[in-house]
Amino acid sequence: MGYLGSTWRTEEECNNSGCLILILPWDYINTDAGLRKFNEWLVFLCEMLEPQSGDCGYCLTMPKDYHQYMSVEYQLALRYPSLSVISTIHLQSIANNNNLKTISWMTILDHSLVKRLGGLKWLEKELHAESSASVTRFSHGLIIQATEYPDLTPVSEGLNKSYQAVNKLLRPIRVPPENIDSLHLFGANQFNKATSIVWYARFDDGPLMVTPLRAGTPALVSGFWSTPLNHNRELFIRQGEMAPDIAGQEPGAAYWSLVREADSFSY
Predict the structure, then answer these.
(1) What is the pTM for the complete model shown?
(2) Which InterPro entries match (predicted)?
(3) Cβ burial, residue 14 (10 Å; 0-12/13-18/19+)
């Protein structure tokens, strides 16, 4: 399980953030009672720590000299897409903490990230429509559970559809490729920057289509948008905000085109 703290709100304050990794035996959730106890404990942990983001799934228990076993983690991560890569998570750039690192069996989002995805009601509606994923709320955000139990299907048998559906919805807030650090340090048969970018995108199904944007749906990126129904006047729409309808038109009739992106993470 990975966790990123959220006690800071600006890049200058990022030294106040933290990273927590907890590893439990895989058979802890091997029974209904164990799974229920784990879910209750995870909600309690989120209430206490107020994480900005986090994820939970199968991973390897790395030894103290973990750098000597990165090739093992690399090979298994290629074979099992749902396996979490955690050996250097404590070294990843904390400047990327306002973005989601990856999705997993369980993915934790605070309210600031949920808002950038269109809000809680929109996210829950889309998740229920697209997958069997469940949502558990806590005071400062929510926990998205892709499947009843963690997935460990080999890539040769295809990607887990529920994981892909969760990834599709959360992809707009994922750390951008240009800001991704290598998941491993250096050496042969290990992740480098290029292969790390591919790993982050392992559940993607084609390019992210941000435009056109239908009225009544959330913008996937912040920027200036226009529509012929509004005489192509430019309107700034922040990531996660619903594209507006045009007066005198049917709801959802307007389709907005992205003129240019403009970063905005302030709410």
Answers:
(1) 0.88
(2) TsiV (IPR021815)
(3) middle
